[in-house]
Amino acid sequence: MPSTIYAVLIADVMESRATPDIRALLGRKLAAVSERHRRQRLIQLPYSVTAGDEFQTVTRDLSSIPAIILDLRKALRPLSLRIGIGVGRISDRIRPPVNRLGGEAFQRARTAIENIKTGSLFKFDVLTAFETRNPGFNSTINLLYGLHDTLVLKITDKQWETIEEFLERPTLEQTAKRLKLDASTVSRNLKRGYYWQLSETVKVAGSLIERTFC
User: Fold this and answer.
1) What kind of architecture, by CATH, is found in domain 5-134?
2) Model confidence over 46-56: pLDDT tens digits?
3) Rounded to an integer, what distance in angstroms lies between the CA atom of residue 160 and that of residue 63?
4) Which residues contact 13 (CB under 8 A, 6 or more apart)?
5) H-run or E-run covering 108
6) DSSP state, 194?
7) Is omega for the bond preceding 66 within 30 degrees of 0, making it cis?
């Protein structure tokens, strides 16, 4: 993958006015996620709150974007996110603050998140959108995430709690012990919370991105 191609992620919090002191809460949660994702070399810059309830970052590891999306949704609960991804060139040297950078990837990310807000992609609600130079890729990845988001919108807080613990310790026994549940309840929560579909989306979308851009 050429080093000049990046992905910009722009996200905002849905119904943020219902959450008191949203900017401070978002900042605390993003600080922890930034530390982990920087340590794992998933992102180039820390997540930065750029306007009210909106935040941005830049990554060069395009095939890891699906894993980043899932981890953000898990880590920022109970906040619900709209996430737009733009792929392309960045016109400036990659350095903070992220809101002073510009270029194609930022423009495309802005288009992606506006497509979510305006409902212009589909006749059903979505939480995630991609925008790249490749129309065929855009159609495929956006339909994949449109179907994926239909499931995400149905996940309950209790199911998210189980998913979060299972992602941290991916065995039924360890997750059950941490949550003080029996293993059968954990298994049921994962199934009813569409964990296995979410996991497969990460794999398939990551592979699609890698085949397209790498």
Assistant:
1) 2-Layer Sandwich (3.30)
2) 999 988 889 99
3) 24
4) 19, 22, 26, 53, 54, 76, 79, 80, 81
5) helix 104-118
6) T
7) no
Q: Residue for token digits 């802005």?
A: 110
Handedness of CA 139, 74, 55, 91 (dihedral sign): negative
Q: For the chain, what is the largest distance between any 2 Cα atoms, rounded to a whole number of angstroms?
A: 53
- Could you give the CA distance from residue 115 to residue 76 in angstroms, rounded to a whole number? 22
| Residue 150 tokens, joined | 């239909």
Q: Where are the beta strands (DSSP E) in 32-131?
A: 48-51, 54-59, 81-89, 128-131
Write out pLDDT tens, residues 143-186. Answer: 999 999 999 999 999 999 999 999 988 899 999 999 999 999 99
- Hey, what amino acid is at 78? P
Question: Token pair 């990551």 is at which residue?
Answer: 206
The sign of the dihedral angle between the CA atoms of 185, 188, 193, 196 is positive
Q: What is the CA radius of gyration of the chain?
A: 17
| Rounded distance between C-alpha atoms, residue 166 and residue 157, angstroms | 14
